Amino acid sequence: MSNVHNFQRSLHPSTDLLQQEWSQFNRFHCQGTYPCPVCRHGKVAEMPLMETFACSFCQHIFTTNFDKQLLKMADSQLPLTWYWNGKVWKGIYREGSQVGVVYILLAIAFVLIPTAIIALGVYLFPPMNGSLLSWLPLMWTILTFCAHLFCVIWLIIEYYQFPIFLYVRAIKRKLLSSMSLS
Ligand SMILES: [Zn+2]
Question: Shortest CA distance to 89 belongs to which of 74, 62, 59, 69?
């Protein structure tokens, strides 16, 4: 019995040390380079002569908390924060993220209700066959759906500060370079 105790006692410090070393190795620190949690394309590293981090691709600026292993977006009004778990960034969800379902339902309603109203109008008062603008009601319904869907997508992009234009530019650059090579 005492042998087991001794064994456990001798085992504990070494495993603790190993764990410490392992987490030290993977820790988020000022000299490291990490994948960008926003665009998932660029690398985040410390800016020269500054205490902030920046992404090489989307150019977002972040503040850091090395004790808590946190990266916080500094150039956004939204408190977007990520936690470094040693391998990847984990998004820390803000308080009240449970209302996410409500937002999804609101977004669906925002897209579907106006479309349904216009579609109902078209169904109840169909255009006369062969009239000049008989295509307009259907076109209008489709346009309503697309416009409202675009608003929702735009809000999502703005909310997550997704660098969509930088992606488009990067794809263009890649295409151009591959075209000039061939
Ligand atoms: Zn980035």
Answer: 69
Residues 143 and 79 in one domain: no
pLDDT single digits (tens) 112-162 = 999 999 999 999 998 888 888 888 999 999 999 999 999 999 988 877 777
Distance between Cα 134 and ligand 1 center (Å)? 48
Dist. CA 109 → ligand 1 center (Å): 32
In a domain, 82, yes or no: yes
Among 41, 70, 92, the domain boundary falls at: 92
0.90 exceeded by the pTM? Answer: no
The alpha carbon of 38 and the centre of ligand 1 are apart by a number of angstroms equal to 5
> What is the 107 CA–ligand 1 centroid distance (Å)?
27
Among left, alpha and beta (phi > 0; psi -120 to 50; other), residue 28 is beta
- 114 CA distance to ligand 1 centroid (A)? 36
| Host domain of residue 154 | 97-170
How does DSSP classify residue 1?
A: -
Distance CA 161, CA 156 (A): 8
Contact present, 166 and 36 (Cβ < 8 Å)? no
